[in-house]
Amino acid sequence: MQTPAEELYSLYRSHPLITTDTRKPVKDSIFFCLKGANFNGNEFAEKAMADGAAYVVVDEKAYKKGSRYILVDDTLKALQDLARYHRSLLTIPVIAITGSNGKTTTKELSSAVLQKKYKTVSTQGNLNNHIGVPLTLLSVTDDTEIAVIEMGANHQGEIAQLCEIAQPGFGLITNIGKAHLEGFGSFEGVIKAKSELYQYLQRNSGTIFVNGNNALLIKLVGNSDFVTYGTSGNCNCIGRLKEDTDRVTVQWKSKLDAAPLDSKPWISSQLVGAHNFENILAAACIGNYFRVSEEDINAAIREYAPTNNRSQLVRSKKTNNTIIWDAYNANPTSMSAAIEHGGSDVLILGDMLELGHYSENEHKEIINKIKEKGYKQVFLIGENFSKAAKGSKYKSFKKTEEALEYFKTKKITDAKVLVKGSRGLKLEMLEKVL
After folding, report:
1. Cα–Cα nearest to 32, from 89, 74, 84
2. CA 222 to chain centre
């Protein structure tokens, strides 16, 4: 007897487009009626069918209106089980990437490198959770040669669950820092959660790509099969960062290449921020392992253009400012790194969210870091930074809208500006005045 996943799979093979949102095209798809905190996806079943869905998957009997309505116990579990079953039939390499910072950029860079040689499927945007990972896997077709799956988490056990669905044979943790402390409970909790990827690979004889300069990650790897990247000559992929350049510029080579690192070309990327050196080197390491040519790896690094305010360098003709937009995500580790390596005249920083009871102390620590580095023009945005900045010389605003009005009259011109904060602050509203 077939399992529910196997039964769904026979429909999926003839209708391989999976959708979950009626605001997007659903024609000829299998539409899964997922539930959220404030909505019941079953209520959109009829609309999806009217819009041309081939089948609709519901989990409440009242919404089953015909033979093309598939009734399951739980639509989310059915989606995950379908993705897990599909993955179990694949023979291609699947690479999982997680970490506190840089996982999306590393995923994008690695995909760009691998696409030079292979038909590659990767996570779109940051759809890296219990819904996004199954959807990514179900977008893998018969001609796909390699898949890169980003995994995000904000609580214990989430990476472990995603690994059981994606069943990666390869994995990379970019770093482990102070992110989502509210959900993980402590930094030790972050370490435990992120290392769930390593544990899965260790149990299943997988291969780990690891930053050889990161002592914590090296310790967690243990006796696993691993491939290293870093600045040491002992690493499998060795790199160097060029100092004093607006855009991250690197040299790299394979350990097996007899040519000295000095003889390799400098590769200028379109990324800003020295922290991206590790992300670039990780992508080069993955590409080199999968035998993408050095020339193609270098071309992919040069060509990759960041989006969504992730490490983007923008020059404003209106104000003659050079702006580093890094306003997609922020936590204490990434914020500290940006301040350390930003080389900016002006800091505009927004709150770091999801820190729980650590929030007040972590925002104060960032302000201390700013003082230590000697920044003169500093603007802080959000309730947390405003509270932490009391008694300091730095200008603060509780909302981005207040900062927007301020900068309309107090214009910043001819400066190098770093804009960084959590996405919830919507710092991109400041584009019109910077």
Report:
1. 74
2. 25
